[in-house]
Structures are given as C-alpha cells and as structure tokens.
C-alpha cells in the first residue's frame, strides 16, 4: 500500500493593525473637531495655529491631501470633495516624519552645570567599520559618529608591526589597523560639525613608554589650542559644557581595581588580596609564548649558577599602570617640545588584558608543566 503525505495550505489572512491613538491625541482631535468624527480643513488650520504654533501653513488642504495619500496609498481628488481627517488620519499625520518632523535640533537645557551632570552621547570602538573580529578599522566611522553628534570617541592604541608607530585596532583580532594620526586629524576636522560642545577622546593604552610619549606629541601638535588643560590635577568639579565649547578633552586611566591593588603592599597577608583584585578586572599579561620564553631564561639563569636567593618578584611578570595621560593635558602648549617627551617618559611596562579564553589556556598550560 502506498502512503501519501498530505500538505495543508493555510489561507487565513491577517489584517494589519495600526497602533491606536493615545489619549492626548484623542483629546486634541475632539477639541478641534468640536466633538465630531471628522476634522475639516478649517479646524485643522486652527489646530496648527493654536496647538503647534504654526500659522504659516498657507495651503492646509494640500497638507491634508498629502497625509491622506501617504496613508491610503492613493491619489486624493480635490475636485470632488474637500479633504477631512478622521481620528486615525489625524494620528497618522502627527507621527509622520515626512509631514510633521521632529523639532529641529536645538539646545533646550541649561548647559552651565558641571559636565558630569549630563548624559553624554558615547561611542564604543568608534573606529570599526563592521564586526569586532574581522572588519577593517578606519577613520570613516569616526567621522560619521561625529556628524551624528557623538561626543566621546574611543581609540584602542597598539604598536604597529615595526614597533615604531601607533595603530588603532581591536587587539588580538583579525581587524586591520588604521594609523592613529589619521584618526586624530579626522577628529579635529569633524569634531564640531554637529555640535559645539566638547569632544572627549578615550585612549585605551597598550603602548610602551616611548610610544606613549609619541602619542602625547601627536595629540598636542594636532589639536593645539583646542586641547583642554585643567587648572589642577584634582579639580573639585568639571567645567560646564558651555565653558568647554570647541574643546578637546583627553581621557584615559587604568581601572580603579588596579589602582587600589597597586597601593597594597605585597606582604604575606596582602599578596592574595592583590592577586584577587587584579583578576577581578581581567588583568592583562604577556601571551603564552612570552611566558615560555621568560620561563626558559629564568631556568637558564639558575642553572648557570645564579643567585639562589632571587627575589620572587623577578620571577613574575612585572606590573605597572599605563602612562597617566592626565600629565599630557597638564603640560602647557607653550613649553618647548623637548620638554614634552622628557615629562611624559616613565619607566613602566604596559598592562594588557587577559581574555577568558587566554586564562583557560594559561591554566591548562600550567597544569601540564609548560610554564616551568
């Protein structure tokens, strides 16, 4: 016996349901249609003048015709009868971006309070053209962000392939880099294209001290007088957006957990606390290859008759905070350029973040004795 599969076709149709007019729209319609079910051109003209403050609309009937054509997708023939709005037509007009667009961008708040009192339109990985794993890095997304009113631009800084310049890219991914200087110049050109209020550049630092000093020189030479220099290292409050118009602010610092851990002395009782605090914010360490090389060198040093009382700290990967770029914005632009490099050079090593996958890999390597 042959078996057959039966295919059922569903022919039930569902009607498109528009959102119901809210109470305030109903109230406005009732008030200006004088309690009727339709709003005439004269009543609509009175609504525009009284409720929206727009008495300059000359051809009200044509506006109503356009609204009806857009909603019903058919031409409105004014020769036969005058246009009228139902409640749904009126609702559609009010929320039509084409016919009744939002108010033009304008400042409607007090902008003289400290900057920290406001929400700030912030970008993240502002340089990426696509996904965070394999897309290109470019200044084009930065330009678009600034044109759309973004006020905070994030730049992830890494040494380039030859270690003599700075690239912007999403670290440890396949993203292709873009030069830092190109991003800085684009920020300068487009920073205030959409708004006169300050632009904050957040620098995520993965650089050596000499490259950090190079960044400082690039920033000062690119922005010049546009850079904001605070009067003190610890101001009581920020200046206002109004006072910071057309200014560029540099922002970067290590996580607070690291700063707290850095101040804890590594004695017998505090070592564990320091380690736990570092792990809490994902402290970065050199990759496995670097760890293996360091481990081999340490073993060779001991085998060659090195000091048996080697300090434990020398066996660990040294940690230090990134360069405090707050020193960059406290250097006055009038100082000779030679002093900039000297002032910014500090003897410290870069901090790198360890992802969860790298943590697991490191643990696995340690369990098999690969790290010495």
TrEMBL record:
Bias type Acidic residues, positions: 296-314
Protein name, as recorded: Phosphoinositide phospholipase C
Domain Phosphatidylinositol-specific phospholipase C X: 109-253
EC class (word): hydrolase
Record keywords: Hydrolase, Lipid degradation, Lipid metabolism
SUPFAM superfamilies: EF-hand (SSF47473), PLC-like phosphodiesterases (SSF51695)
Keyword Lipid metabolism carried by entry: yes
GO MF entry, a single one: phosphatidylinositol-4,5-bisphosphate phospholipase C activity
Membrane association type: Peripheral membrane protein
InterPro entries linked to this entry: EF-hand-dom_pair (IPR011992), PI-PLC_fam (IPR001192), PLC-like_Pdiesterase_TIM-brl (IPR017946), PLCG_EF-hand_2 (IPR057061), PLipase_C_PInositol-sp_X_dom (IPR000909)
EC number(s) stated in the UniProt entry for this protein: 3.1.4.11
Gene source species: Musa troglodytarum (fe'i banana)
Ranges of compositional bias, category Basic and acidic residues: 260-276
